[in-house]
Design a protein that fits this description.
Elements (H helix, E strand, L loop, with lengths): L1 H10 L5 E4 L12 E4 L3 H11 L5 E4 L6 E3 L20 E3 L3 H8 L5 E8 L3 H11 L4 E6 L11 E2 L2 E4 L4 E3 L3 E2 H16 L1
Helix pairs in contact: 1-5
Amino acid sequence: MGIALADAAAEYGAIVDLVLGPVNVKPASPSINVTNVTNAASMAKACISLFPGCDIAILSAAVADFTPVVVKDRKIKKSKEELQLKLKLKPTTDIAAALGKMKRSGQFLAGFALETDNELENAMKKLVAKNLDIIVLNSLKEEGAGFGYDTNKITLIDRNNIIDKFELKSKEEAAKDILNKIVSMIQ
């Protein structure tokens, strides 16, 4: 969705900065300024750095909530002996919450919620807790939506608790629905 949103925003005439994790797809528009990142920490750093200079930020990445405390730079080899590994995790920076705290008057902040249970309720809580203006709810329960598809089925919830549900459509069309809602809210 991030690339579809960036391309759609560029089509609308916006100056677009895209913070992009490791993906096989690239934006179609050559006018998009791409900052490549490789992990949640580098994504947080880039977003926090770019945010003060933007009018609208749309956070569509599915960033991991946790990361390993210790990262090995070499392969852990198999052995004949039983190996007991303990995986210790620590929370990653909550980018949406960090930007929500930084948000100045006149900035617009949109986030995404990928929920599996109590979807609408959890998305609405996230909207308020992270100081978002709008949240895009994705469901893993919807066939053809979310990861690994060229389509998505979204529900938009704005800060006034207005809920707009959309049918399954291409990610490019869904991106335009999101941008049209944002434009209607800032005008």
